[in-house]
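lol ok so funny story. i was supposed to be doing the assay writeup but got distracted and ended up predicting the structure for this chain instead. priorities right. anyway since i did it might as well share w the group, maybe its usefull for someone
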Amino acid sequence: MVGENVSPKELQMTRMYDAPIEKLWKAWTDQDVVRKWWGPRGVTNPVCEVDARPGGKINIVMRAGKELGSFSGQEWPMSGIFKEVVPMKKLVFTSQALDDVKDIVVEAEVTVHFEDLGGKTKVIVNIRVTKAGPKSEFALRGMEAGWNQQMDKLSEEMEG
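and the output, tada:
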């Protein structure tokens, strides 16, 4: 499903996965799995640290690949803190997209709801921008496309 612009600074996405809830939960909380699907198409994650517990950190560095043309080789760090972790039900974490001098470009709160549908799983992701720095225009403009690509990659990971 395509992302739905709730407001200029909020995006909500609902996806159905033909996979059990335990597999989706692991995909969001196990750094070895997160590394495989996080970020838009054409990026890898040379750094992926996920400590999914209240107060735990998330730290991911996305690196643009050749398929992203002039962006190739650029790194886009993201960090945050898990605020709420309810196993198999809900994750809430902050997300700070940082620039090359570690200034915040965009800060958001991400809430992920998991619903067990007996072998299938419904996932609702809400991204609410809480701070947009002076260099945020590009990131905000690409937020919906980036998250859709990321969720598509998660679907492919669940099928694999």
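The chain has one domain: 4-159. The CA atoms of residues 90 and 147 lie 18 Å apart.
back to the writeup now i swear
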